[in-house]
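Attaching the record inline, Q. Sequence:
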Amino acid sequence: MKIVLAYSGGLDTSVILKWLINNYKAEVIAFVADIGQPENLRKVQKKALDTGASKVYVEDLKEEFVRDFVFPMFRANAIYEGMYLLGTSIARPLIAKGQVAVARREKADTVSHGATGKGNDQVRFELTYAALAPDLKVIAPWREWELRSRSDMIRYAKENGIPVTATKQKPYSIDQNMLHTSYEGGILEDPWSEPPSDMFLTTVSPEQAPDRPAQITVEFEKGTPVAVNSRKYTPARLLMKLNQIGAQNGVGRVDVVEDRFVGMKSRGVYETPGGTILHVAHRAMESITMDREVMHIRDSLIPKFSQLIYNGFWFSPEMDVLRALVEETQKDVTGTVRLKVYKGNVTVTGRKSPLSLYREDVVTFEADKVYDQSKATGFIDLNALRLRIRARRGRR
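Structure, as predicted:
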C-alpha cells in the first residue's frame, strides 16, 4: 500500500502520518499545498520526513488558488449563511486536486486526510477524490482510530516523539491560507465565550487600528479584480495587497455559528481582511454595470452556490452549471471602485465604469428631457390592478 497524505505539519496530520505508518505498515508520502499559509514549509517538509514520510511534495498553488478558486467564488458573491466568506471551504477541493495529482505521479493506491468525523472537511476532501479519482481508496483516521480528542492526540504525539504546538490549555484549532484564518474548537466551543484578544494572528483589533482611514481603489475586468490603486497585480499578489490593507485596519473579523453539512451547529471565528474588501468592492461594481433582472436571478442563486462550496461540491455537474451562469453575468462588470477602509469597516465612496448602466440624465431630480414622469401613472395603475380587485372582493 502506498498512501498520499494531505499534510500540514499541524497536530492532526503529524499524528496521522505516524499512525498510518504504525497501523497500515504502508509507505506514506506527504503532500503539502502552499496556499499562502505562514508556516515555514521547509520546516514542515523536514518534520514530515523526520516523522517517517518516504517523500514530501511541497507545491506552490497560491496563484491557482486565487485565480481558479477564490476569484470565481467572489464573482458569484458567495457567502455562507450571510457571514462566512468560505475561506476554508474553497481551499479543500484544490488541496485534494493536488493530492490526487501526486497520487497519480507516484502510482499510489490510497489517499488520506486529517479531517475529523464530525466536520465538513472530510466531505470536501472525499467528494473531490470521488469526482477526480474514484478508483483511489480513502483512509480517514478520525473515523477509524481509538483517539477521541485533541488531548489524546497530544499524548500520542508525545509518546511518538512528534513535536506539536497545541496544548491542553490552548487547544483551539487554527487553519490559515491566503484568503483567511479560522479558529474553532476548544475554548471557542462555548458560543457565549468571547474569543481571547491575543488569539487573532492576522488582523489588528478595530480599536487598535489607525485613526486615519485608508483610501483605495480596486479595478475590475469582467468581474475579476486586476489592480489596486491603479497598480496591476497577479491574482495572488492582489489578494496579498488587500490582505495587508485590511489587516492593518481591523477589517474581516467575524464570529459565526454555522450549520455544518453533517447536521450540527458549529462556532467558528474567522479573519478575512482582503476578501471582505473584495466582496464589498465587487458588489459595488456590479451595482452600476449589471442588469437588474440578471442581478436578481444571480442573487437568488448565491445561497445555493455558497452551499455547494461549503458542502464540498466544487467539482460537480450542478456547480459547473452555476459557474457558467455566473461567468455570463460578469461580462460587463468592468470598472473602478473607490473605498474607505477604517477601523473594521469598508465603505464604498465611488464607482465608475465605461459600461455603466447608471444614467445621470435619467435619474436626476432636476429638469430633464428623457423621462416623462406622467407615464408612471399607467405603470402604477397596472401594477395596482390585482390589489384593487382583491380588496373589492371583501377581504384581505
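The first strand starts at residue 2 and ends at 6. The mean pLDDT is 95.

More tomorrow.
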